[in-house]
């Protein structure tokens, strides 16, 4: 009977025969979690969006929201619920979808290098004809593809419910919002990947990615409280993505490019970091 180490080594040899061995293995190993997060996002979309005609588009509900403190409604994004685009922005892109996609991306990023080094699998992978830079780049690519697939799923499902739920959403605005949605999640995941590469520990990766996601949301919320705090928007990736209400006004394509560009730069820093570090358990 072969030992676990030998079995893992054998899997590494098999995978190295493909053109993108690390990407292929990372993607094939993670398809179950991708499916789970996709089902979670789909459940949220099918739960929230069909309620728009009786909830967000209801005049009585809007009257109720108008009685709430302005600071509270702006903090949670509920000042836009009267339109289908604003309702979708507030509930899916700005809240539950943001939460689910961020957790998924951070989990993938933290496990890719930090978790693998912690379990000893990273040393086995590096022993089979792949470089550290290749490992970092291909695992970043696998995470990015998973995030983009989740974004594509959101685009398709929201578009599918556009007419039945009376959302009246512009397709181009939806596309831009989904790209911002993916870019925002990818940024948190890439920070988790980098933190894992720096420390060799999954928990630090989770902490780093969560710090960016939470801090971005909090800075945006505080920045909405008044002119004295608006400068915080400049420090919030959440605000970079959603400050211009992309579902209503269309995406800021500079912000789209910026979010993905920052993730690419951080991915390159991750590869450089892993190349320079001593790998251990």
From TrEMBL:
<protein>
    <submittedName>
        <fullName>ABC transporter permease subunit</fullName>
    </submittedName>
</protein>
<keyword id="KW-1133">Transmembrane helix</keyword>
<feature type="transmembrane region" description="Helical">
    <location>
        <begin position="203"/>
        <end position="222"/>
    </location>
</feature>
<feature type="transmembrane region" description="Helical">
    <location>
        <begin position="253"/>
        <end position="274"/>
    </location>
</feature>
<feature type="transmembrane region" description="Helical">
    <location>
        <begin position="34"/>
        <end position="52"/>
    </location>
</feature>
<keyword id="KW-0812">Transmembrane</keyword>
<dbReference type="Pfam" id="PF12679">
    <property type="entry name" value="ABC2_membrane_2"/>
</dbReference>
<feature type="transmembrane region" description="Helical">
    <location>
        <begin position="173"/>
        <end position="196"/>
    </location>
</feature>
<feature type="transmembrane region" description="Helical">
    <location>
        <begin position="140"/>
        <end position="161"/>
    </location>
</feature>
<feature type="transmembrane region" description="Helical">
    <location>
        <begin position="92"/>
        <end position="113"/>
    </location>
</feature>
<keyword id="KW-0472">Membrane</keyword>
